Fold this sequence. Notes:
Blueprint: E1 15-20, E2 24-31, E3 34-41, H1 47-62, E4 71-75, H2 78-84, E5 91-96, H3 102-105, E6 130-133, E7 136-137, E8 143-145, H4 149-162, E9 166-170, H5 179-191, E10 196-199, H6 200-203, H7 209-239, E11 246-249, E12 255-257, H8 258-263, H9 271-286, E13 291-297, E14 302-308, E15 311-312, E16 314-315, E17 318-320, E18 332-334, E19 338-339, E20 342-344, E21 350-354, E22 360-366, H10 385-391, H11 409-424, H12 428-453, E23 462-466, H13 470-481, E24 485-488, H14 495-500, E25 506-516, H15 522-543, E26 549-559, E27 566-569, H16 579-595, E28 604-615, E29 636-642, E30 647-655, E31 664-666, E32 669-672, E33 677-680, E34 684-688, E35 694-698
Parallel strand pairs: 1-4, 4-11, 5-6, 5-9, 9-10, 13-23, 23-24, 30-32
Antiparallel strand pairs: 1-2, 2-3, 7-8, 11-12, 13-14, 14-15, 14-20, 16-19, 17-18, 21-22, 24-35, 25-28, 26-27, 26-28, 29-30, 31-34, 32-33, 34-35
Helix pairs in contact: 2-7, 4-5, 10-11, 10-12, 11-12, 12-13
Amino acid sequence: xxxxxxxxxxxxxxxxxxxxxxxxxxxxxxxxxxxxxxxxxxxxxxxxxxxxxxxxxxxxxxxxxxxxxxxxxxxxxxxxxxxxxxxxxxxxxxxxxxxxxxxxxxxxxxxxxxxxxxxxxxxxxxxxxxxxxxxxxxxxxxxxxxxxxxxxxxxxxxxxxxxxxxxxxxxxxxxxxxxxxxxxxxxxxxxxxxxxxxxxxxxxxxxxxxxxxxxxxxxxxxxxxxxxxxxxxxxxxxxxxxxxxxxxxxxxxxxxxxxxxxxxxxxxxxxxxxxxxxxxxxxxxxxxxxxxxxxxxxxxxxxxxxxxxxxxxxxxxxxxxxxxxxxxxxxxxxxxxxxxxxxxxxxxxxxxxxxxxxxxxxxxxxxxxxxxxxxxxxxxxxxxxxxxxxxxxxxxxxxxxxxxxxxxxxxxxxxxxxxxxxxxxxxxxxxxxxxxxxxxxxxxxxxxxxxxxxxxxxxxxxxxxxxxxxxxxxxxxxxxxxxxxxxxxxxxxxxxxxxxxxxxxxxxxxxxxxxxxxxxxxxxxxxxxxxxxxxxxxxxxxxxxxxxxxxxxxxxxxxxxxxxxxxxxxxxxxxxxxxxxxxxxxxxxxxxxxxxxxxxxxxxxxxxxxxxxxxxxxxxxxxxxxxxxxxxxxxxxxxxxxxxxxxxxxxxxxxxxxxxxxxxxxxxxxxxxxxxxxxxxxxxxxxxxxxxxxxxxxxxxxxxxxx
Length: 707
């Protein structure tokens, strides 16, 4: 077997990507000059079954055997699901005496201050499993109270009685001095080598004890589950003949080795959507689009990500298991590197109903894969967005999911009629259109606010649509957002899985070390940054020992007295005293991006330092333009609902596989393919570019005004 630490990633390889989503499991097999894709319904009770079924189908179609595959990349929802469904291990938190309730107290704030029935998510570690020991370190790392090792040993005797499998260790100010946490870890493992032990200074060496302890608890809670799943996956794949290295997609948009993922499974949260953002960045560079919003709409949710200069927006905070599913502040906070996305409960499986105001409401609850939308004929009876798209004529029934899922329009009609049409006394077609309009408006409003909060004008961006449902809704979403150009890539229905194969091996580390800019000490800063660089490079080198590495350095900075920081880039070299002015200017520029002004003469402070190391990813070649295209001939016609007429009208249907580069298509029409379909509204025209992508452009009259 080829060991991961001996492996060099090359573009000239046979590669396999697997993405487990809430509704479908997507598989992509790619080799030089070819690609095969497949979609299989996710098997929630045993997700590995869907993985192996999908791999079997895709490999057979590709005419490859297991030994032909050189690299396998996997993204999974298992880590997220283990927290949401509370299916992790029995976990103990060992913390500083007097601080056992930190994860209950949180920020002492309410995500909805006027909701008197507000519920907060339950901590992953209940109070009876939070144990304390005497010790104390101050914010400068000085030991005030030595660790009571006898107290630690006394706690170990309780673990067997409590059924403990995993331990999180989180002491006050351990980011400044991790010695006590590391000693506790050594004592625990010496007493019981089968214990899983997570220390907060390794998972999240940053200030803010609530977020740090929450992240450590989450990693400890899911580590036994993920370790078992990933180890079994490696063994099962090996038995099937897949002896290639396995890499996991992370939330930050990079790949990590299986061993690193087993140690820090918390970094696998939201790995699927991250792959989609990587794909969108790649396409933006090919199409020379400097401002892009990626639109990933699957079966359960829709994800929006802003991408500028071919780089997705990133962050170091994330929430999981929200009590109010899509309301910020209502979940468990995690401090991990993430591609910043807006998630909306708007997918093909989102359930529609009439609310108390006699208005159509859609989501956030979803029919998922089991039982799925009513048209799936799998026991689902509730009306969903997919049911609406079927009745509106936007979905090619014969090619849905490559023909692997049989759709029944009559079941969709019955569900929408009962849930929407009869209560509102409208036609079934109008009810279906209402569902589509509401879900599109929800997504548009959320995307608009997301952009405004980041100082962006979303209408200045192009839209890249992928995921099984996104191309069906992209033109209407663009109309609402004032966007003039849409790109639908090839194999859009499995966009995230394709993105996995474009991601670099990467790792990011952070360390909190407080410093005011007026007291800038380059010697101390360089020591911190070198240590972070060594840590990050050691992880990346385990998967890519000989590839060229790219290093990026940033800092969390703010004005003294402020509560939150912004990310500021640092020079890629050792810093000198004069760089205090460089950092001040860089901070001013970033601050103005958010607030359009700076605060004169205010002191600036630095809280944390970040180093990110990744393998070099070559910018894709820019696609050349195509001139002299011809109007494409439709393969067929079928009825599609026209809201203006409140009636079905015949529209042309084009098979994407038959469209040559340069082909021109006018809306309204549908471009069908096996994994999705692109709805071209009357406001857009489409053409196929040199990469085979569908480019939709807003139609304008002779004076250049939008139609």
